[in-house]
Amino acid sequence: MQVRGLLLLLALILVAAAAEAGKNKKEKAKKDGSKCEDWRWGPCVPNSKDCGLGYREGTCKDESKKLKCKIPCNWKKKFGADCKYKFESWGGCSAQTGLKTRSGILKKALYNAQCEETVYVTKPCSSKIKSKSKGK
């Protein structure tokens, strides 16, 4: 009986400690020292090469900040990492150009990025012929 009570007390202490830790994280997020609400953010600049970890600079009136950011290494460089698009399915293969095309409509522009509303991408047609029948 005493062991059960001790375990219950230990569980309550752990729950209280976890709640306090969550509260401290929220307070830290609020205490960035800035009352400015009209931040203008620049693009994410990778630390090396053209993808990976980096930073973006923001300004608001006479304040400036740097935030950590990450550019995925498979991003579409043509569109920018802060422009998110919803793409249609690939179209048919053009016999003249040997390319497939598809379009994407802007879904979200992060950090006030200047994004095109509609973008078009192409890729070479596959030389492989896919077989629809599976071995019986």
TrEMBL record:
Residues annotated as signal peptide: 1-21
UniProtKB keywords: Developmental protein, Disulfide bond, Growth factor, Heparin-binding, Mitogen, Secreted, Signal
Any one GO molecular-function label of the UniProt entry: growth factor activity
Short name of one Pfam family: PTN_MK_C
Domain of life: Eukaryota
Coiled-coil ranges from the UniProt annotation: none
Family of this protein: Belongs to the pleiotrophin family.
Record's function text: Secreted protein that functions as cytokine and growth factor and mediates its signal through cell-surface proteoglycan and non-proteoglycan receptors. Regulates many processes like inflammatory response, cell proliferation, cell adhesion, cell growth, cell survival, tissue regeneration, cell differentiation and cell migration.
The protein's name: Midkine
Gene from which the chain derives: Rihb
